[in-house]
């Protein structure tokens, strides 16, 4: 048995739990999950069927955890999991799945397929079958502290520009602040207005907040790669930064997987509850709205719509909040067809956006989003994830849909803020 | 790639063997309990003392009876004898001759002229001929058709073929099982026929060129190329024989199956005559269809298994349909230009 | 001879294999424990587990147009089989003889229609499985065996319907015994396992405030 295979199998064995065992013995191969998957619907290639992407884990389960499987394997009658299988599945799992979980919502026997794909990634990563782009991003995340190589210097420069633009002081390393805000590298590099918008909103609403110079990265490449150890290392950095500044809350920025990771998965990566509460920036804005602290004036009369980031909505439960916020400023808001917990992915989640090899496929499966947008043709599309926003920009560009403007929800709110002395 | 082909082959084997197993089991499962039937054979053959009486009664006059119901006034049905005569002296022997001679002709034709090859050989480029739903409809109809045909033929010919083998008690059991299955699956066949009609009717309407196709015998005489759309005239004729025959079979079958609407013996006898004739005609013509779809014409069977045919096959047998498909594909491609690498990704079955 | 075996020892074996096999199948998923979830829940996991178990009986509207055949044939087959298993008159008599518990069977005409609809569902599902590139790729021997065995059980049951031939009844019971022995080791286990699967997924999403 090859070393790579041994490593992969060991990693997957460590991932085996009651849920996987139950899922594996429930699947009847009905194929309905394929019809929910943008990679299947847009390419027509049966190999992109979600449950098929779990095949390496299923083979392992069959040969080591089932009666007939064990019997057949011991007599050499069945085809065992091979290194070739792992190599063949790399492209399906890393390029052909965004972990959007749409399949998990439609399975008639209730299998959470994305949950198992995450576990397959764990095996592939351990065996060394991960795309180069993602592996490099992981290295940068561990070494530099940002998958895109954004350093504290870059952040400082960005903050200075935003301070000049807004005329507000952006708090850095303030001990005892109520909220510690994290950013995704993509935000700092691509949408720095987000930081300025936060400063404006928090001033108007009187929220005490800070940024940590020690660690400010919200994303977690360990999750996308399928490397729990790396994921735990990165989570510990957040915990340590938050503990040093003695904050009670941590804000996840406009980023989908950052939110699910730090809000839902982080305590499980480090094996203990987090010493602080985690909120998505939309959740916080909605709380401020409900408390009457967040007030807006004027509206955007464009026909706006909302793209649910899969991780925030389907896997995070932040579905109603953005809509309540948009109701304040967007009177002509129109829902996309198939929205909320059944929204179509932008095509770049789950680490696909960091994996350049997957670009042509990603732009091909953007057709699902295009179809959804074509149905109502909004004038503006609001989202709450900087990665989604990058991917949507890319897709709209590719399809020459220049009439749709992309907006971040925080900036949209900040643009309509009632300036009151907090 | 090799593993995909292997998997495809393995699946094909599984499917073929499964179908054969199903048919075999249909026929042979009822044989298992024969051992049981032979253990305690009933004594039979008591001479009937009332023979003379019954002979007199069978004149067929209508009388009155305490029991009120359909045909209760008739002690002996006078049409019964005519029906029995038709079944025993005409339907059974002529049906057997019809089916047998067509089978023999097909075998002879195959031995003499062999399969029709794709001119110039296969190109390896595939185009889709039948969608998943079309194929599902087809095989659903096929399954029911053969379930009904086999059980029906056992009921019709079993007394000659099976009684000598199984003995009267054994055949009684088989016949009872076949009758139950035949009556149960019968109404479903109507569903299948209607599905077939809805799915395929639009391509089976008469079109220009069909007469020419027929006059040239589909290319067998007159020489030269014969032009055809998605279905040629021969296929269209088979479609209408199957659909209309299927409807006659279903209608007459329902009359026989659901004897609760006041239909008397006369109606039942006529229904049975229609049912028998239609069944034997459709079964006989189906031999031709099966031959053309499998051994008779190279490259045809895949259109109903994985849904794809070779381009050369399409060009040679259905040139007008091929042209339409090319035009449609051209539009699609123009639309998808620059659609990225995945645009070329076809389903694995298409590549084998 | 054969009939005595089928009604006697074969039946006992089948019953034991089925009972212990199913129980073992269900219990064995707990061999590897789930890790505890330390995250602060937003909603109730229990409500999510129950909710998902009920909600997943209905298809998501977003997918209806893409999965019509699955939905129609799936319901026909499963509801039909359930009705046949528990409400066919000979079955009710059988359960009564075995357990002393009886209930009202369905009338003969209802049996016929139910049997036809479930055959319709099963045949369409299996043929579709073979024809569709996705299910063709996914399916293995187990999928086909399970479908064919179920078909044969239903077929022999209907062949024995008239009840006049002891041999046909014995044949039906024998095929049922084969199915019962095959059941715990096969994908047929989904008949029980869908409950924990839906519950796990429902609870996981429920904690996050999502209705799965």
Number of helices of chain C: 10
**Overall average pLDDT of chain A:** 94
Radius of gyration of chain C: 20 Å
Overall geometry of chain A comes to: globular
Computed CA radius of gyration of chain A, to the nearest angstrom = 22 Å
What can be said about the biggest beta sheet of chain A? 4 strands, parallel
Classify the helix fraction of chain A into a percent range.
40-55%
Oligomeric assembly: heterotrimer
Helical proportion of chain C, percent range: over 70%
- N to C succession of SSEs of chain A: HHHHHHHHHHHEHHEHHEHEHEHHHEHEH
Largest sheet composition of chain C: none
What class do helices, strands and sheet pairing of chain A give? mainly alpha
Portion in beta strands of chain A? 5-15%
Summarize the model shown:
Chain A has 422 residues and is mainly α. Chain A has 22 helices and seven strands. With 352 residues, chain B is mostly helical.
How would you sum up this structure, described in words?
The complex is a heterotrimer of chains A (422), B (352) and C (212). Chain A has 422 residues and is mostly helical. Chain A has 3 domains: 3-130, Fumarate Reductase Iron-sulfur Protein, Chain B, domain 2 (Orthogonal Bundle); 143-290, Up-down Bundle (Glutathione S-transferase Yfyf (Class Pi), Chain A, domain 2); 304-415, no CATH class. Chain A has helices spanning 3-15, 18-24, 32-36, 38-43, 55-65, 67-74, 83-95, 102-106, 113-127, 132-143, 152-166, 185-190, 193-205, 221-225, 228-245, 256-270, 281-290, 320-329, 359-365, 367-376, 386-398, 409-415, and strands at residues 179-181, 209-210, 249-252, 277-280, 304-307, 380-383, 405-408. Chain A has a 4-stranded parallel sheet with strand order 2-1-3-4. In chain A, helix 1 (3-15) runs antiparallel to helix 9 (113-127) and helix 7 (83-95) packs across helix 9 (113-127). Chain A is globular, with a radius of gyration of 22 Å. Chain A starts with a helix and ends in a 7-residue tail after the last helix. The model of chain A has no long low-confidence stretch (mean pLDDT 94). By secondary structure, chain B is mostly helical. Chain B has helices spanning 2-28, 34-39, 51-57, 78-113, 132-161, 163-200, 210-215, 233-257, 265-296, 302-305, 311-317, 319-336, 348-351, and strands spanning 126-128, 308-310. In chain B, strands 1-2 form a two-stranded antiparallel sheet. In chain C, 72% of the residues lie in helices and 0% in strands. Chain C has 10 helices and no strands. Chain C starts with a helix and ends in a 5-residue tail after the last helix. Classes of the chains: A mainly alpha (422), B mainly alpha (352), C mainly alpha (212). The B-C interface holds B 7, 11, 14-15, 18, 21-22, 25-26, 29-30, 32-37, 39, 132-133, 135-136, 139-140, 143-144, 172-173, 176-181, 184-185, 187-188, 191, 306-307, 347-349 and C 1-3, 69, 112, 115-116, 119-120, 123-124, 127-128, 130-133, 136-137, 139, 141, 144, 148, 151-152, 155-156, 158-162, 164-168, 170-171, 174-175.
